[in-house]
Design brief:
The complex is a heterodimer of chains A (186) and B (582). With 186 residues, chain A is α+β, with helices and mostly antiparallel strands. Helix content of chain A is 22%, strand content 33%. Chain A starts with a helix and ends in a 14-residue tail after the last strand. Chain B starts with a helix and ends with a helix. Classes of the chains: A alpha+beta (186), B mainly alpha (582). Chains A and B meet through helix 1, helix 2 and strand 3 of A and helix 1, helix 2, helix 3, helix 4 and helix 5 of B. The structure holds FE2/S2 (inorganic) cluster.
Chain lengths: 186, 582
């Protein structure tokens, strides 16, 4: 406490320096302590999102999105991901949480998350150019997901696809960290 | 230290902060520091706690009919440290009310309200009112039963104000009825308008206090001292005492209470917070339209008198009158509070509904832990409420009626955890099947084939591991039919056991009476167990238990709730979803 030094010359009371020092120290200490309690209590709640074990994001599961026959060869189609979702106290059933592009190429299906790997905008499919285009910072990706032009650090995020019972297209919907070279699941 | 000093010099050079600090710290305290001067500081401290904790609470609070209770629940029971934060805010508010009274008493006893300090006294009285307004508005924000009903009474009183009452009420509630805008308005008052006013007035209050200085208590105890450090230490210790009191209250009452969500359809004994109890009690003595007298006229007269105290107190007699008035009001309020508490304590109806409310609060908090549907937490309580009303005359839920009341005359199976593995382990035990918790008190108990079957096949199951394993497989298979949300993982992991159980179902002859999946026959004498315990199955049996798929003509007393339109489909779903833990 620098203030003490500054004020010691202010008064000249004939008291023992010991007692005065104690009173000053005690005042400052108690004052700081009582102020710290509500502040700490508040900050503890504030940082809840950091300290909490992430119970809200559950492990990604496969979701049935389409039948093979619905897809057109060589043309990406967009499908909404509808899932149960919890947000703080709320529990929602069947709300849209994201979307994927499904692209069928000779009986193989590729799935891309529609989220741009750069900074998270929604990537469009441009029919005229037959490519993916992000309207935010103009990244362009070809149908293989490769970056052809722009600032994205990595290609479009491919998702795992399973064909079940010969016709059903199931996709493991995952989200990835934005703006990193590697694909990191979050 | 040197660096800090340099920084301080720099700051002082730019701002002149040193003079201000000196002015504050070296204020003269005539006659030296005393404990009786601490009240103002403790109030400032309490106010500071409220501002800090309040802003952090604000970050988690969502004012609206479907989110207020829910967000407070989330702060209180789910967020790290939320319980403590809310407890601090709540109990500091209570302690602050007491401190206000102490401060007022000290000011009047010491004559600190007299000239030239009249204006500052008025500032203080307004601050007192603002603080009470903060308490009143804050009481509603959790949108629980307690706050809702108490505030309803308060706003109805307001609506009774002559001439402007109705308009005033519309203005405050944001409409004719309680709803979203009541909360947004109360919240804007509680976290915006009132605190800003309090800050402004407190600044003025402290400024005026500095201008006139402390009112020394005569005779002086010693020689004059500076505020720093002796009085500061006393103030700090007093603040510490305040904090300790708050902490003790928080821990002994387990934080701030949260009732069940506001529900206009249930009876709830409305009571204001304890410091308004005397006014509440006072009203009981004013029948009908005399209410205005007790609720508005007399309190206004008392307030006006308090306001006029500095003028009345000019003469020695006036001061005595003020003292008398103050203590009169305090004693009167004390007695009324005591009477109110005492009446409630001896009122069985009050106690019963209070206890019921507490049980409901407990139930809903347990349910809310699994997430709350978008319609809000109140919807969660509909299941148990409907169960208590329509099912609990025969069935029980864990020995209770669904709302926490013990049931003694149970005559149909307990349904808690219905179709879960645990439930079936109990139900299918040869010694338990015909016990009163299950079918013992039903018509099925007499000459029950099922009971006979269990005794034949599973007698001595407790000592026979092979038997127990068989039973467990059957149970797993049967329970998997329910697709209970709580067992999704288990069902997935135990595929092999479930398949084995399914086959045993046929092998040991369950299938002679019950159908299950592919095990089918032309005629069955007992309920179809395909989808047993699932949403569809339960909806079916509630709809019509006498349907041939269930008990057919052997149905005991269970009404056909859907078929006979005793319950709507929505209501049936609410009961079923609750039973299934959805
Ligand atoms: S977010 Fe897509 S390019 Fe920046």
């Amino acid at each position: 406490m620098s203030t003490e030094d500054n004020f010691s010359d202010q008064e000249s009371q004939p008291e023992q320096p010991d007692r005065r020092g104690f009173i000053r120290g005690a005042s400052c200490f108690i004052g700081a302590a009582v102020g710290a309690v509500p502040m700490t209590a508040g900050i503890r709640v504030l940082i809840d999102p950091i300290v909490r074990k992430n119970s809200e994001s559950e492990k990604a599961e496969f979701i049935r999105l389409a039948e093979l026959t619905e897809l057109q060869d060589g043309e990406p189609m967009k499908f909404a991901i509808v899932e149960n979702k919890s947000d703080k106290w709320s529990r929602y059933t069947d709300v849209p949480v994201g979307a994927v592009y499904l692209l069928k190429r000779d009986e193989k299906v590729i799935a891309y998350n529609t989220v741009c790997p750069h900074l998270g905008c929604f990537v469009d499919y441009r029919k005229s150019e037959n490519d993916f285009f992000c309207p935010c910072h103009d990244s362009q990706f070809n149908l293989d997901g490769k970056l052809t032009k722009g600032v994205s650090p990595r290609p479009m995020d491919e998702l795992v696809v399973e064909i079940r019972n010969g016709v059903e297209v199931w996709v493991k919907f995952e989200r990835f960290k934005s703006n990193t070279k590697e694909k990191i699941v979050i | 230290m040197h660096r800090v000093k340099q920084l301080y010099e720099w700051l002082d050079n730019r701002t002149g902060v040193r003079d201000h600090i000196r002015e504050v710290l070296f204020e003269n305290v005539p006659g030296g520091s005393r404990w009786r001067y601490v009240w103002g500081s403790t109030l400032t401290f309490a106010l500071m706690i409220q501002f800090i904790t309040g802003i952090f609470l604000w970050m988690g609070y969502a004012p609206s009919g479907q989110t207020a209770w829910e967000s407070v629940y989330y702060i209180n029971y789910q967020m790290t440290g939320g319980h403590f934060l809310r407890g601090l805010h709540h109990w500091t508010a209570q302690v602050m009310t007491v401190l206000l009274v102490f401060h007022l008493m000290q000011v009047i006893i010491d004559g600190a309200y007299k000239a030239p300090r009249e204006v500052n006294f008025w500032f203080g009285v307004i601050l007192l009112k603002l603080t009470l307004a903060l308490s009143l508005t804050g009481y509603l924000l959790p949108w629980d039963q307690k706050g809702f009903w108490a505030t309803k009474v308060a706003t109805d009183i307001m609506g009774g104000t002559p001439i402007i009452g109705e308009q005033l009420k519309l203005l405050v509630l944001g409409g004719a009825d309680y709803g979203h805008h009541t909360l947004t308005r109360f919240f804007a008052l509680h976290a915006g308008i009132l605190p800003v006013s309090v800050i402004a007035l407190t600044v003025g209050h402290i400024y005026l206090f500095r201008r006139h200085g402390i009112t020394p208590k005569k005779p002086l105890k010693g020689s004059d001292e500076f505020f720093w450090p002796e009085q500061v230490l006393k103030d700090a210790v007093a603040c510490l005492a305040v904090l300790v009191t708050v902490l003790v209250l928080h821990f002994s009452f387990d934080g701030a209470h949260l009732d069940a969500p506001a529900d206009p359809s249930t009876n709830y004994p409305a009571r204001p917070d304890w410091y308004f109890l005397f006014l509440f009690q006072f009203l009981k003595y004013f029948p009908g339209h005399w209410e205005v007298l007790g609720a508005i006229v007399l309190p206004s007269i008392a307030m006006t008198l308090i306001f006029l105290m500095p003028i009345i107190g000019r003469s020695e007699k006036g001061h005595k009158f003020n003292l008398g008035l103050l203590f009169g009001i305090l004693v009167f309020a004390g007695i009324l509070t005591y009477v109110a508490v005492n009446q409630d304590r001896n009122n069985p109806t009050y106690l019963a509904s209070k206890a019921q409310a507490q049980r409901e609060a407990k139930i809903i908090k347990e349910m809310a832990a699994n997430g709350i549907p978008p319609e809000g937490a109140l919807a969660l309580l509909q299941g148990p409420k409907l169960f208590a009303q329509h099912c609990a005359s025969c069935h029980t839920y864990g020995g209770e009626n669904g709302l926490g009341n013990k049931v003694t005359d149970q005559s149909a199976p307990d349904l808690k955890g219905f179709a879960s593995r645990k439930y079936l382990t109990e139900l299918l035990h040869p010694k338990r099947f015909n016990s009163p918790e299950f079918f013992g008190n039903t018509a099925h108990a007499k000459k029950s084939k099922m009971q006979g079957f269990l005794e034949d096949e599973f007698d001595g199951i407790d000592d026979d591991e092979a038997l127990r394993n068989e039973m467990n497989q059957i149970i797993k298979a049967l329970s998997a039919e329910a697709k209970l949300p709580s067992q999704t993982k288990m069902d997935l992991n135990d595929k092999a056991d479930i398949q084995a159980g399914y086959e045993l179902f046929e092998e040991i002859g369950c299938v002679d009476c019950h159908a299950l999946g592919d095990w089918n026959a032309d005629e069955y004498s007992a309920p179809d167990l395909t989808g047993y315990g699932s949403r569809g199955w339960l909806m079916g049996i509630v709809d019509n238990p006498a349907h041939e798929r269930f008990y057919g003509s052997k149905n005991d007393r269970m009404p056909a709730f859907g078929k006979d339109e005793k319950l709507t489909r929505k209501q049936m779903e609410q009961i079923v979803d609750w039973l299934r833990g959805q």
